[in-house]
Amino acid sequence: MRKIRGYLVLFFVLSAVSLWLGAVVESRAEEHTVYLGNGQMAEEDGDIGKEGSFQAGDTGEIRLGYTEEWLYGPLERTEYASSDPAVVKVDEAGRFQVVGGGRAVVTVRGYNSEGLVVFHAGYCFRCRADVSGAALQKTELRTYIVNQQADEITAAFLNMPDLTYYIFQYSSSNPLMNIDCILDPHAKTLKIYAGGSGTSVLAVTINNMTFTLKIIATEVSINKVSAVLTAKKTVALKIKGYPGSVTWKTTKNKVVSVTSKGVVKAKKTGNAVVYGIIDGKRIGCAVSVVTPKLKKVINAAKKIARGKYSQPKRMKKGYYDCSSLVWRSYKKIGKTFGDRSYAPVAANIAKYLFGRKKRIKGGLNSKNIQGMKLRPGDLMFETGAKNGRYKGIYHVEMFVGYQCEGFDSKGKPILGTLWAARPANAYYGHPMGRP
User: Fold this and answer.
1) Whole-angstrom Cα distance, residue 399 to residue 231?
2) How many CB atoms lie under 10 A from the CB of residue 16?
3) Chain centroid to CA 370
4) Cα–Cα distance measured from residue 133 to residue 209, given in angstroms and rounded to the nearest whole number
5) Could you tell me which of 312, 345, 343 has the C-alpha nearest to residue 329?
6) pLDDT at position 399, please?
7) Residue 282 near residue 276 (C-beta atoms within 8 A)
8) What is the pLDDT of residue 17?
9) What HEC string does 214-235 produce?
10) What CA dihedral angle connects 367, 371, 375 and 381, to 10 degrees?
């Protein structure tokens, strides 16, 4: 039993070494026998009729099956012909040899003593080429994952023969990378997608040969996906994980400018996305420019939100609830929503704003989010409670900025929402007001 185990271990070790060297014979040349009877013909397209799959190097013979009464006279001689000798060669005795990849139809005709055809048949050979003379142009490729998306990596072959018919399979040494590999038989290339960062060695088998390819996928990130600035203030954006040059752009040059080094400068109030172009892909930061007073409100809201939530202690330092957070933050600049001494409930804050035409058209919808129509400091109100209060409102939350979550296929930013006391994208579809 120990000897058997030892042989098995040796077998797997040798197999692994062969895979690494990239020269594994998956299918060897074989001897075949093809049987044909009178009238059995391969169809022109090879999809119907007598046909079979072969590998370059395969040999064999065509045997004819018939009885004399099937024929229109005794069979005196036979002729064999291949439609493509570069794929299949056949001799006068019906011995064939597969020499290349592609499709070939071998036809057989039998003649009687008068030279009339008394037997006819055909066989379609679907042949996989010998790819042992091919090689990858590169044995190591790099890709960069931006916004959790990686570009297609293309690996080209040298001296790859016809791939009309083929056997293809692959394996990855790093399953955590979620690598997908597709063979394009027409372009004779591999299309590779990496779903995660890391390093992997792909073992790609085509017909009778295994090729190895090292894939290195690196996660690219930006130091900030969101920023709130006041006019003339700056923030430096930096890219991590990419060694090449980065081209910086802004969606609204009137709101913010950006240098070739990624330094963003606020110019006037508004919203914009500043992004870097990396290897054809975009990664960005959503930037909002607000007044100094509004920046003071936003900073206060974030600080209060680091305390403990408590309705009984909502007005005390170190504690808050939703409406006291909003009221105390805006009180810093003299806005108290009609009550200078105590925070109103969320419904009364909404009633105060909406009654003064401070309601934002459309509220928290996709158009306002993706169009960057909202402004940090805006308030969102949750409705639907049966509490007898204005519009059934039971909660208020402060919007504190956008975050850039990626870009769509047209290069348009995909934006998310940030909140003072709740996780990103926690709300959607609610009414909003602007104090």
Assistant:
1) 20
2) 11
3) 23
4) 9
5) 343
6) 98
7) yes
8) 35
9) EEEEEEEEECCCEEEEECCCEE
10) 10
Q: At what angle do helices 292-304 and 322-331 cross, to 10 degrees?
A: 140
Residue 209, strand partner residues: 206
3-state secondary structure the chain: CHHHHHHHHHHHHHHHHHHHHCCCCCCCCCEEEEEEECCCCECCCCCCECEEEEECCCEEEEEEECCHHHCCCCCCEEEEEECCCCCEEECCCCEEEECCCEEEEEEEEEECCCCCEEEEEEEEEEEECCCCCCEECCCEEEEEEECCEECCEEEEEECCCCCCCCCEEEEECCHHHCCEEEEECCCCEEEEECCCCEEEEEEEEECCEEEEEEEEEEEEEECCCEEEEECCCEEECCEECCCCCCEEEECCCCCEEECCCCEEEECCCEEEEEEEEECCEEEEEEEEEECHHHHHHHHHHHHHCCCEECCCCCCCCCEECHHHHHHHHHHCCCCCCCCCCCCCCHHHHHHHHHHCCCECCCCCCHHHHHCCCCCCCCEEEECCCCCCCHHHCCEEEEEEEEEEEEECCCCCEEEEEEECCCCCCCCCCCCEECC
Q: What is the pLDDT of residue 280?
A: 85
CA 320 – CA 122 distance, rounded (Å):
87
Beta bridge partners of 395: 382
d(CA 153, CA 283): 19
- Cα–Cα distance for residue pair 85/107, rounded to 1 Å: 12
Burial environment of residue 112 by CB neighbours within 10 A (0 to 12, 13 to 18, 19 or more): middle
Strands of the 263-266 sheet, one edge to the other: 234-236, 263-266, 256-258
Distance between CA atoms of residues 90 and 387, nearest Å: 91
Nearest to 181 by CA among 159, 150, 208, 158: 150
Closest CA relative to residue 94, chosen from 60, 51, 52, 55: 60
* Displacement of CA 399 from its chain's centroid (Å): 31
Q: Which residues are bridge partners to 117 per DSSP?
A: 111
In the predicted model, residues of the chain with pLDDT beneath 50 are 1-26, 45-47
**Rounded Cα gap, residues 166 and 183, in angstroms:** 10
**Residues 6+ positions from 105 with CB-CB distance below 8 Å:** 42, 46, 82, 83, 122, 123, 124, 125
Q: How long, in residues, is the chain?
A: 435
